[in-house]
Each structure stands twice: as C-alpha cells, then as structure tokens.
C-alpha cells in the first residue's frame, strides 16, 4: 500500500487521476485527530490489480474544510457524512451533509480528542 | 357524475418505516415518498444503535478492547474479532501459530453459516414465507451450540486474542463439527428444493432491486452484494489472511444483480462454507494455540488496514498506533453501511412490498451500521 500525501487544493485532481488509473473502489475514508492537525485518509482500490492506494490530506484542526469527492466517488457519501458528524470536517459541495449517526441536535464532534462529555449533551 | 381524470388530485404520501419495524432488521428507519404504491423517494436514517465503539478503542487498552468487537456485528462476531485482532497483530508483528489459524478458520466459517442461516430465515419471512424461519433457526441453534461448547457464549464469543485463540478445541468437539457437516448439507439442499424454483418466491424477488457491476464498484459494495452483480471479489482469496492462503479459490458470482441473484449467491456460499469446514478440519494438527505475546501490548507509531470477508462483505479495521497501549484511532469499515448507500437506487420505482424484499436482500445488521 502506497501512502501519498496530498494538499487540499490538489485533492480533487489527485483523486481523479487515481480514478483514471483504475482506483475506483472506495474502501474507507476517515480522519485521525492529532490535536495539532487532522489527517484525512482515503483508501482507494484497483480491483483488477488488487492494489490499494492511500491518500492522506493534512487539515487545520480548528476549521477543517475540504472539497467533497462524492461527485467522482459516490461511495463516499455516507463516509463523508460520518466524518462530518464525528470530527466536524465540512465537505464543500456534498449533496446532503448532515449528521449520520448522532442526533441532529447533538453538540460537538465526539471523535475529536478534546471532546468532553459535557459538551455533547443533546439539546431538545 | 364522475370527475375528470385531470381533476383528481394526486399527492405524494410520506410513509415512515421503522425504527421498530420487524422488516427493517433492527433499528433502521427509512422514510418513503410514495405515489400510490410506487416509491419515488427514500431517506434512510440510522444511528439508533450507535454506541461509540471507535471512541472506546481510544479509551481502552488494546488488551481491554479485545471483547468489544463482538458487539459490532453481533450475528457474525468472529469476523469482527478477526478484523480487530488481525489489524493489531499486523501492527505488533505477531503471528498466530498454525493450530490457532486453523481454529480461527473453522469458527469463522461456522459463524458465516450461522449468520447466513439467520438471513435466509428472515429474508423469506420478509417475502411472506413463515415456515423456513423456524427451520433455519433450528439449524442455526445447532451451530451456535457448537460455538458455545467451544467458547462459552452463543453470540459474543471473545474467542480470539492477539497471537492466537483463547480456548483449545477438544478432539470430541472437532468430531462433532465434522459429524454435523453432512447433516447441514442435506438440510441446505432441502431448503433449495423448496425455495429456489418456488414460483411465488421467484415472482417476488426476480428482476427487482437491480444494481450493475460498475455501480456496485463505485459505491463500494462488497460481499454477496458485489458478487451478485458479477464482480468476482472475495477477500478470502484476493487478499488471503490466515489459513485461507492455502485453500483453492471458490468465488461465487452471479450476473443478474437482482434480489434473486443475491439470494443465490448467499445460499451457494453456505455450501462453500461447509466445504471449507471439511478442508479446515483435515488441516488441524496439534500444537500451541497462542504465540508469545507481551503482557502489556503497545501499538507502535504506525498504521495499518486489515480486512476480512465477513458474511456481509469487507469488514476492515484501520488502526493507528501512537506508542502507547491505547490506539490513536481505530476505524471500522462496516460493509452494511456501504451496502446501504445504494438503497434509494434499488428502491425507487418499485412497490412498497418490494421495498421489504430488497432491504432484506441487502442483509443489514444495525449493530454494525451504527457501531
């Protein structure tokens, strides 16, 4: 598995390049919180060769924002919603960016390291 | 006086299905927009069973977390354990001894068979056949009895450990498993005689919920959903782990991509599971069941992705270590969640009664979707 670092502005370009090379199968998309920064992980697979490719995008921890890849990789729709829900990363041009697992009125993003229970009380 | 056709007001009806609906297999909720009986819009809602297992992995040590994966997909807990343990072993550089590898293969195929039996029963219940449910549960209970004898639990086994398995299998137990296989095989062929060419069943499930191979790929479908659309991808042989590397490939595919194809793929996979069990039982040899593992397990500062072919598809774990006993991040790839992404494509244009059959054919387990 090759891990490739990509900057935010090059993400769409790189992803489209991967698609052209046959890496069309979305295996996984998630974020890792390192407190100083967030790392977004995209694992794409080429089923004919059986290869995986990992794209890694470093984001600012305070206001993470990234273009959505769903127009090119529709299999990321729920995954991007999940990362938005649990990490607070906002995806530009996502067709339906709402919380996936937690209630809509939930406050905070629990998979962030600085998250505390008091922050995340459900408000009615 | 009869009104003009144009004068009849047609409205869309919103129908809420779930989360406490027997046909949604747990706590899945979807809102259907209906025009008459035809579905024109689908909005899925999930998260009712969210228990924060990914956060828990950051707050528990690696050893403490070992029994938690059982609770992700409670119908096929062995696969969850294998995914987590496999990812951990890859990070730690531990390899389980051969006897443990074979035992893992045996319990996983038993578990796959049990999981597919439950699916078969409930799927037929969805399309209106009540009695198969009773028969498949009878057989499933026998498999669960076998697993209980080995591990002490019916569903949440906590059987696998970093570096091996927790309990050794007695020869008596292995003999019981071997004796059970011809019985299960016979029952399976009995089901197929009753169901495969049943006209009512086929008219309920054929040519509905079709997804083609290209779409299936782009949406990240896996398992029987993907293979029923003609893509021969099975991690057991495409990315062999453990004992599967030694087994000749037997990937079941179907080209139709409809609900009936998904039924056929799963049923044939049950037969493959029984064949694999026989092969694994021949491979059992005496030896240790645990490798030497340090008392305190610390994940190194690395990351890994490890996936197994569960009954529902590719169940993977992306694990990031940070040099402590706690994980920096543990992400589960739940196959049911990916498979649910195509729900609206599958449902739109069909009748409400088909919606239940199509949802049943996706085989979702909400414990895994919501985690």
UniProtKB/TrEMBL annotation, chain A:
**PANTHER family attached to this UniProt entry:** NADH DEHYDROGENASE [UBIQUINONE] IRON-SULFUR PROTEIN 3, MITOCHONDRIAL, NADH DEHYDROGENASE UBIQUINONE IRON-SULFUR PROTEIN 3
Describe the location of the NADH:ubiquinone oxidoreductase 30kDa subunit domain by residue ranges. Answer: 6-119
Q: Which InterPro entries match?
A: NADH_quin_OxRdtase_su_C/D-like, NADH_UbQ_OxRdtase_30kDa_su
Q: Which SUPFAM superfamilies match?
A: Nqo5-like
Family classification: Belongs to the complex I 30 kDa subunit family.
Q: From what organism does this protein derive?
A: Sulfobacillus thermotolerans
Q: What is this protein called?
A: NADH:ubiquinone oxidoreductase 30kDa subunit domain-containing protein
Automatic annotation (TrEMBL), chain B:
Q: What does this protein do?
A: NDH-1 shuttles electrons from NADH, via FMN and iron-sulfur (Fe-S) centers, to quinones in the respiratory chain. The immediate electron acceptor for the enzyme in this species is believed to be a menaquinone. Couples the redox reaction to proton translocation (for every two electrons transferred, four hydrogen ions are translocated across the cytoplasmic membrane), and thus conserves the redox energy in a proton gradient.
State where it is primarily located: membrane
Where's it found, cell-wise?
Cell membrane
The record's catalysed reaction(s) read:
a quinone + NADH + 5 H(+)(in) = a quinol + NAD(+) + 4 H(+)(out)
Membrane topology recorded in Swiss-Prot or TrEMBL: Peripheral membrane protein
In short, the EC number is 7.1.1.-
Query: Keywords on this record?
Result: Cell membrane, Membrane, NAD, Quinone, Translocase, Transport
How does the annotation summarize its subunit structure?
A: NDH-1 is composed of 14 different subunits. Subunits NuoB, C, D, E, F, and G constitute the peripheral sector of the complex.
Sequence ranges assigned to domain NADH-quinone oxidoreductase subunit D in this UniProt record: 126-297
Q: What is this protein called?
A: NADH-quinone oxidoreductase subunit D
The keyword NAD is assigned to this record: yes
Return the similarity comment. Belongs to the complex I 49 kDa subunit family.
List the InterPro entries hit by this protein, alphabetically.
NADH_Q_OxRdtase_suD, NADH_UbQ_OxRdtase_49kDa_CS, NDH1_su_D/H, NiFe-Hase_large
